[in-house]
Design goal:
Elements: E1 13-15, E2 18-20, H1 22-25, H2 29-32, E3 41-45, H3 51-62, H4 75-78, H5 93-99, E4 105-108, H6 117-121, E5 125-130, H7 133-146, H8 156-165, H9 173-183, E6 189-193, H10 194-199, H11 201-211, H12 218-227, H13 230-234, H14 271-285
Parallel strand pairs: 3-4, 3-5, 5-6
Antiparallel strand pairs: 1-2
Helix pairs in contact: 11-12
The protein binds 3'-phosphate-adenosine-5'-phosphate sulfate (PPS).
3'-phosphate-adenosine-5'-phosphate sulfate binds next to helix 3, helix 7 and helix 13.
């Protein structure tokens, strides 16, 4: 039996130059040697960019908008996070994936160079969802308050400094989004934006259906929009993470389904923080064609 001291609020650990959640690094060979299946669909994001939302949408697309079928299991079982391991509190991502029927959804936040090679060799389909950095920082701060596998965030000010420096789990947001965007030039990656999904879910869901070679009627797309709206997902225990053991997630500190909007950063960034962030942003993103909207 593992004691909570072994997993809770530990410092991050480096793996091949990337800061990672301490317990995930254990037996890293399981990630390096992971063998994908030909029809795996990889859902890849920087943390807090709408991964759960995208996962539920993809599951609905694959199941022709059948909401009841999509309640067959919790989201962490339907779309296991590849790198997740917590010394046996829960079944690891790799073990859950081995059990799942094809086509499997594989959730990951891994930077490009940590993704198992088999996915590249297999030319696996991948969907990347990106969200603007300021809202990600705010969402990630609140997630640190409740997800006890992460180190404590300190104050918002302190956390923002760490986020800007890339001293958070999975490293720099800038490097993550830029490198995945660049990879779209040579690999089948559907690159989506959280803000576009908020603004026009019909259009974005149709893009996903086309990418996955699924034909969906307008009626089915409407069902998917309804089932995956923030309000519906917030109240759906299969996707709102309330099933998680409290050792791992403390919903009394912050809820997983927190606000689900674009532009919440304005409630947290001071004018000075915003100016500093914008300066860094300009430097980090210069030379990349990737564009974000920070409000709708
Ligand atoms: S994780 O832990 O990295 O996998 O988190 P992730 O799922 O990527 O991101 C969580 C944020 O996504 C918001 N969310 C949604 N927004 C809009 N619509 C729907 N349906 C939806 N579902 C989840 C969730 O509320 C988190 O964002 P914040 O800003 O904290 O509310």
């Amino acid at each position: 039996m593992v004691s909570s001291e072994e997993v809770v609020r530990k410092d991050l650990k480096m793996i091949h130059g990337h800061p990672m959640i301490h317990t995930f690094v254990f037996n890293w060979e399981r990630i390096e040697q992971f063998q994908c299946r030909p029809d795996d669909i990889v859902i890849t994001t920087y943390p807090k960019s709408g991964t759960t939302w995208l996962s539920e949408i993809v599951d609905m697309v694959l199941n022709d908008g059948d909401a009841e079928k999509c309640k067959r299991d919790v989201i962490t079982a339907k779309a296991p996070m590849l790198e997740m391991a917590d010394h046996g509190i829960r079944i690891s991502g790799v073990e859950q994936l081995k059990k799942n029927p094809s086509p499997r959804l594989v959730k990951t936040h891994l930077p490009i160079d940590l993704l198992p090679k088999s996915f590249w060799k297999n030319n696996s389909k991948m969907i990347y969802m990106a969200r603007n950095a300021k809202d990600v920082a705010v969402s990630y701060y609140h997630f640190h308050l409740m997800d006890r596998l992460l180190p404590l965030p300190g104050t918002w000010e302190e956390f923002l400094e760490k986020f800007m420096a890339g001293n958070v789990a999975y490293g720099s947001w800038f490097n993550h989004v830029k490198s995945w965007w660049k990879k779209t030039e040579e690999h089948p990656i559907l690159f989506l934006h959280y803000e576009d999904m908020k603004e026009n879910p019909k259009q974005e869901i149709k893009k996903i259906a086309t990418f996955l070679e699924k034909k969906l009627s307008n009626d089915i797309v409407d069902k998917i929009i309804h089932h995956t709206s923030f309000e519906t997902m917030k109240n759906n225990p299969m996707v709102n993470f309330t099933h998680m053991p409290s050792t791992v997630m403390d919903h009394s500190k912050s809820t997983f389904m927190r606000k689900g909007i674009a532009g919440d950063w304005k409630n947290y960034f001071t004018v000075a923080q915003n100016e500093k962030f914008d300066d860094l942003y300009e430097k980090q993103m210069s030379g990349s064609s990737l564009q974000f909207r920070t409000e709708l």
